[in-house]
Amino acid sequence: NSLEHRPEHSPDHSPRPPPALPQAPADITQHADRFLTPGWAAPEQIQGQAITTATDVYALGMLLFVLLAGQHPLLRPGADRAEMLQEGTRTALPRLSTRVAPQGLPGLPESRLRRLLQGDLDHIVAKALQLEPQARYASAAELADDLQRHLQQQPVRARPASLLYRWGRFAGRQRVPLAVLGAGLLVSSVL
Length: 191
Known about the structure:
mainly alpha
């Protein structure tokens, strides 16, 4: 009979009950103080402080940094990993545009990538990666809003809003009308 040789059935052909799961001693189960991924954790996570929405904003800022710069702001080959992570809890991270991968990104040499990241993106990522949680964006939606404002050449909230900066953003959005106006003024001044 084919059932006699199947280990999940007893010799009388009735199914065997599943084996009992081993019971772990009560002292093995412990509560973890914190859950984090070293190198991506916010300073307050590393220090065992309260986890808030600002912690998530920090992680998004770290992800943005790596995606845009092509390398991690803290982790460097050959350096002591634990010391680098502790450094990230004490000092502000380097500017995005200063830590561009030497090879750049596919299709973008390092020098061009560095120029593209200077300015608004530097400020946006720096705000998301502030050491103090209350200095970061209040939510992921605020971070996304500033990224959208950058893409639309509008002033970003992460950057001090000087008159010159606001004018530059306006001029970037209105290139054609401003060129026509400038040409019209030039023609009228000649006549």
